[in-house]
Amino acid sequence: MKKFGILGGSFNPPHIAHSIVADSVREQLELDKIIFIPSGNHPLKNSLSGGHRYEMSRLAFGRNENFEVSDIEVRNPEEKSYTVDTLQKLTKLYENDNVKLFLIIGIDNLIELHKWKEPGKLFRLSKVIVINRPDYDISNSHKEFSKKAEYITVPYLEISSTIIRKRVYEGRSIKYVTAEKVEEYIYKNNLYR
Questions:
Q1: Nearest of 39, 154, 25, 40 to residue 102 by alpha carbon
Q2: CA 121, 10, 46: angle at the middle one, nearest 5?
Q3: Gap between the Cα atoms of 141 and 139, Å rounded
Q4: Does the global pTM surpass 0.90?
Q5: Using CA atoms, how far apart are residues 35 and 5, in angstroms rounded to an integer?
Q6: Packed helices 50-61 and 16-29: angle between N→C axes, nearest 10 degrees
Q7: How far apart are CA 161 and CA 47, in angstroms?
Q8: One pLDDT digit (tens) per residue for the chain, 193 residues
């Protein structure tokens, strides 16, 4: 059986902490690969266009043989993206390939899971893996979900997309916190100004 990790996010922009966390999860769970899924029309937040975020994710993660980037959520920009729908599409896509899906979320997402569309169904479509995040406590999550999840600890780096966007806006360097190709793409397309 193949084991694919599913790591969704806005990736606005993607950065090295995403790669480090993904690789840590992949190693610990002995996954065959991690599929990065830039969120499409996210129902809970507004973001840069899916096309830009997909392209930056491809530049950030596409050269690693253990990583794959999917446009499954960004190809229909008018359609709202829900994780449960994406997992159903992936289940159908891999139905003949003997694949088990591992949905990777942060503990912050676990706490908010009751706001997601059909959250209980996520556990039927995948093994839900929860990674640590600073300043979040599992006791704040719904017991129904927290007892079904598997928890793993990953390295924490104080790098975030928010910090990168702020640095670009202020004209400061983002060298080393994101892939060089992503940095070039941001400046070439005048993003976050």
A1: 25
A2: 95
A3: 5
A4: yes
A5: 6
A6: 60
A7: 11
A8: 999 999 999 999 999 999 999 999 999 999 999 999 999 876 556 568 889 999 999 999 999 999 999 999 999 877 888 999 999 999 999 999 999 999 999 999 999 999 999 999 999 999 999 998 877 777 777 788 989 999 999 998 989 999 999 999 999 999 999 999 999 999 999 999 8
